[in-house]
Amino acid sequence: MWKNSKGFSLLECITAFSIWMLTAAILLPSMMYITLERHNNAKEITAIKLLSGYLNESMYENRSIPIGSRSIKGEKYTIILEEVPDQEACVQWEEKPYRARKSCLPLP
Question: Which of 3, 12, 22, 101 has its CA 20 to 30 A from that of 38?
């Protein structure tokens, strides 16, 4: 700045604005990715809680696991049984960006 100046010059303002915009351009994609992953992790936690709840009910009340789709908070979760080397109960759901996920727990 010049000696008798009462504020910032245009060049200083443009430089400061450019630094802020560069910082925002670097951080914005990261923040979007973090937000998306937080949403996907919340869906996964809900799916695992749903499946473990059904497994606990079936184990303590001696009845079969309800197979089919359930909707929780507007999201669709599908419960299936798989016959791999051991029998497993699985839950499937959609994540953003439009990929299917599946989590399985072994049957007692």
Answer: 22
Please give the structure tokens belonging to residue 47. Answer: 């799916």
Q: CA-to-CA distance for 50 and 53, rounded, in angstroms?
A: 5
Q: Give the 3-state secondary structure of residue 13.
A: helix
What pLDDT was estimated at residue 57?
84
Query: How many CB atoms are closer than 10 A to CB 39?
Result: 11
Nearest-angstrom CA–CA distance, 37 and 77:
18
Give the DSSP H or E segment for 69: strand 68-72
Q: pTM to 2 decimals?
A: 0.72
* Rounded CA separation 70/36 (Å): 23
